[in-house]
Write a structure and sequence with these properties.
With 246 residues, the protein is α/β, with parallel strands linked by helices. It contains 6 helices and 8 strands, in the order αβααβαβββαββαβ. The strands form 2 sheets. A 6-stranded parallel beta sheet has the order 5-2-6-1-7-8.
């Protein structure tokens, strides 16, 4: 709910497109579970925007999953290969994490091989990737505002990005990741940096992992500082407060 408010308020500011919320997790399993739930919220926001584009702007509300390639394909080429393999499989595997339409619950990939490409809610080419709901009556039959391929996230920065803490280490080796922080690209003027950072499962950031994440924390927060010197709101959640005094 907090993320939803942050995304809506962001649209009332000049240059309010791009990534508004960053949510970080320590485990990819936790990330994907939260991603599937958060996708429904983003779809709800997108239906509001479509009804009132004058209020919420022309850029769609969207959500992206930023994790390692063992969880999702990180390039368009690998995503296309995974899609082609799914088309040939007798029982397609859920290789794109999003197993059902977040809005109506229709399966993204059919349970069994189908000769109809429309039964596969994925469009994958050499330079693009998109989900769509196979159900024609769904409002997201044209395209779902969901991204799971890294190159897609860099080309069209999602409003809400969920990622694992280790993925942020890629910032040092992947210049395009700067797009998630409002950096310019070509003729694109860029956007405001994220205004809300959520660190979930804070109690898991202990020992060596906590030390390593801490090294990147200053860099991430620095990238989220706007031109006026204003930094993001930072919120952390945890399942336990045991030993909180330490």
């Amino acid at each position: 709910l907090l993320a939803a408010f942050a995304m809506v308020l962001r649209r009332r500011e000049p240059g309010g497109g791009g990534t508004a919320v960053l949510s970080r997790y320590t485990l990819s399993l936790l990330t994907t579970q939260q991603f599937q739930r958060a996708a429904t919220t983003v779809c709800a926001l997108e239906t509001l925007r479509r009804a009132e584009p004058g209020v919420y702007g022309s850029e769609p509300f969207s959500i992206g999953l930023w994790v390692g390639e063992t969880t999702t394909p990180n390039t368009y080429d690998k995503a296309r290969t995974a899609y082609e393999n799914a088309r040939q499989a007798a029982q397609p595997d859920d290789v794109f994490i999003l197993d059902r339409c977040p809005w109506c619950g229709t399966r993204i990939l059919p349970a069994h091989k189908s000769p109809d490409a429309g039964d596969y809610g994925v469009r994958a080419t050499a330079d693009s990737f998109a989900f769509f709901c196979p159900r024609r009556e769904c409002v997201f039959h044209d395209e779902l505002p969901v991204a799971v391929v890294d190159e897609h996230l860099y080309d069209r920065p999602p409003t809400f990005v969920l990622g694992t803490v280790d993925k942020f280490a890629r910032l040092a080796w992947e210049p395009r990741a700067g797009r998630l922080f409002g950096a310019r690209s070509g003729t694109d003027a860029g956007n405001l940096p994220p205004s809300l950072v959520i660190q979930d499962e804070l109690h898991l950031l202990t020992g060596p992992l906590g030390t390593t994440v801490g090294l990147y924390e200053s860099a991430v927060l620095g990238l989220c500082v706007g031109s006026d010197g204003t930094g993001p709101k930072v919120v952390a959640s945890t399942a336990t407060i045991r030993r909180s005094g330490e």
